[in-house]
Structure prediction request, 1029 residues.
Amino acid sequence: MNKKQTETSVRVTERSLFYWILRRHRGMQLILLVVIVVSLFFKVFPLEMQKRIINRAIYLQDIDLLFLYCGLYIGAVTIAGLLKYAINVLQVSIGQKILVEMRNELYNHVLQLPLQFYRKMQAGTVISAMTAELNTIGFFLGGAIAIPVTSILTFLVFLIFMINLNPWLALLSTGIYPVELFVIPWLQKKYNNLNKKRVQTTRKMSNVVNEAITGIHEIHGNASYGLEERKLSSFVDKLYALMRRLFLVKYGIKFANNLFQSFGPFFLFLVGGYMAIHGQFTIGALVAFLSAYEKIYDPWKEMIEYYQSYQDAQIRYAQIMSIFDLDPPHLLLPDNRELLTLQGNLQLNNVSFSVPGGVTLLEDINLTVKANEQIALVGYSGSGKSTLALLIAQLYDASKGTISIDGHDIEAMSKADIGKNVAMIAQQPFIFSGTISENLLYGIKSIAGRVESVERAEIMEVVRQVGLQNDILRFGLQSVITPEKCRAFKQKFLRMRQIVCTTLRSEFENVIEFYDAQKYLYYSNIRDNIVFGDSLTGEFTIEHLPENKPFLKLLRDLSLEKPLMTLGYAIATQTVALLADFYDDEFFFRHNPMEMVEYRTYQQLLERMKGPVPEDSEARRLLLTLALRFIPKKHTIVSFPSALAEKILLARRGFQKQIVFIEPCQDHGEFALKPVSPQTDEEPTFIPFCPSEYLYSRTLRDNILFGAVKSEDILNDHFRELAASAFEDEQLLEEIMEIGLEFDVGSRGDRLSGGQKQKLAIARAFLKDAPIIILDEATASLDNSSQARIQGLLESKYKGKKTVIAVIHRLDLTPAYDRIFMMKSGRIVEQGSYDELMAKKGDFYALARTES
Amino acid sequence: MHLPEQNPEMEGISHLTDTQEFIEKLAVFAGAPEGVSRMFAYLARREKYSKGQVILEQGKECDRCFLIISGQVDIFQMHHDRRFHVQLLSDDSINYFGELALLAEFNWFFSARAWTDVVLLSISREAFSKVLERYPESYQKMVQKIITLRIQRFSAQTSYQLDHLAPDAWREDPPEE
Prediction:
């Protein structure tokens, strides 16, 4: 299928495991081999020293020799240890480097696989293969050469050493090894088969979990927990059975190994001991022989283990590669030429498309679209219009016939050519995690030089055109901006506050209770009324205040503690009694200082309290928490004791003077803006609700409104528009948009509504400024006005400037298109302008009538 | 449900009781069990509008009903871009509007604006249905009462409109088309 791969490169999935090992990081592997060979000497040398210590130093009772040999012994052992450490580090480093390359190249290959591949492939399989399964291979890769070479050489060196000491004894003690060469592979083969099944079962299990997580809405909606659990448990049971058998074999291999290992010393003691008794063998040689035997077993064991992990890696590798063993249908970049810049003349000749199994979805499609023409593809569901759009976008490849743009066969075009010249908008677009801005630029990031050339103004223009501006403004307003990020915009944000609090004050007073250092705020909680500011360290939150000693002392000094406790007690008793039958629904706690999860706690508290006076610190903390959360005008459960307001205002002053050591706002009511020096202005940790201060722990909206909203229901579009137009007059909106563009959309854009996602995808496609735009029912999920807006854009801005191919379900949108292609059962049955097709009274006419 | 005796130190509780008394006096909620009116008092929100301010707009989604604590509210309908006054409500006459919003989801078929400065109490459909979920025996009665009151109001409004029809708009039979 692949006609464009160069001859020299081997497709990633066709490479053997050793292809990677033998061709990558050869320099490092060579160094590793040298280190291994050097280390061998230091492994054998201590054995010789052992022999000499006994046979010479001890035998001759020569202390100097003893010191010398012991010194050499410990020196050699230390060097051998260090070299082993170096070998391990090098081995892992090589393995991981190869793994990184393998993973990158495989991922690159996987991304290019045709869409059909993903239709039948479960995401769980791909994820499991690309992550956990590849990791296991990584461990093998590092030692793929080092371990066998070390083991074989070590084995041989020790064997020669032993033969040198006593050939017969050497042969006798190692004679059992060849038997293992038959037993171990036989067991290994069994292990491999089971392991293969284990990998397959794990993948199936991953798919079930992946599907359940993706479709969690359906599971909750249908309460199909049992069903899903059963699906998984069938695999869990199967896996359990497999693992049991797998470990039986695995430990069987280990048992065989251990058994064989014990035969050696048996022969050594029997024969070696006999020879030593008869003076045919020195004690020193016997000790050295025993050490050597012990050492010779290690490389042997390592070789067996290596064999096992090689088999394991080989199976995993083959299974990973086999699932991705397809050719990417197109080259990523063109060979030896610049990217094409097309006009948008589209030609389809006798195009057919079939899916495996022989089902033909499109048959003999002939279609000519002139550059900048706008056409609509219509038809009943399943008539093949979306498939046709996907073929034109090179997302599917035609089974027969040719598709060409400006005379270039798209079969021969690279992905980059299509990426640059075709913008496709799907009905259910995918939004990536990241910011709005990142998603907007996603389409043009891969076109060289485009991202740099896109001006902020161009982005804003497209955002406005698709109707995303208000959404982005809202995101901007909801953002909590860090001091560093805010620095550049702070003055402008404070100017917005100034507009709302002064120019628009009379209108906004109906909906906002502005912060005023001299007044009690009935729409703010008691905490805000006392603290009247925020600490950037979170020190004075409601959570922490009941344990803040200076704060509690202040309350006591002002005789405020008792009334607050009484208020907390009143809230608790009223709420616990009133919501006795309603405490299981969060709705009833929306306008209450108590939270649903706390109901039981307060119920128990009241049961153990004998009166309104709390007796322990926990009771005090709980009651004070409720009081500090209390908002007189919003929490209807009790009304606010009017005498408290005066005391709280005193507490506000006391708090500022004695706890945070600041002067009361000097610029009360004036909203004067202090000049801010960008270099020297260090933000203090406590920021009071003063008109000239930006409140970093609150949202931008809270900062602009500078007060508590009386009712969200009343703060309606009228006020939003009022503020927006005032801001726009002073060109302040751009700043909010800038912040809004940095809004994090969440995983798969989960923090966006369906309409917002769609508009974002449309803006993303329009920003590409490609000559061909394909809309696959791209506006179907939008509300009527947003849909009309996008349609209007096609009819005005892009009319005569872009080739537009729109798959459309709503036929009332079709009159705006130059030509309409009516599809039925995979064929084009009619084409012409709206008026022509209606006059013809054929299939389009019939479809239009059923729709109306 | 037992509510605790009022503690002399808890001067705040009277607020909820006042609201409850106000609600119980309204035709819409008269006769509802004490627990229901207490919960409505607890869940009702107080809204203030200045003279001339729009309270609700025709065509917008409805979600709550309004009770007039003080002031007057002008109910009107837009028809072919012309405003038609329908009814002037005040705290001492018919002191509620939008009661159908408690029963069903629809878009307002009229608009309301503050004719004087007004203070309203609003009860959301969500609050209404969540409370009555726990009092199913009251639900039926309340629905019936709301519909009856609505019919009364509808007939009063129709009479008002017929009284103000242009003389040539009068017809005895349907037009022949």
User: Anything to note?
Assistant: DSSP finds four helices and eight strands in chain B. The first helix of chain B runs from residue 14 to 25.
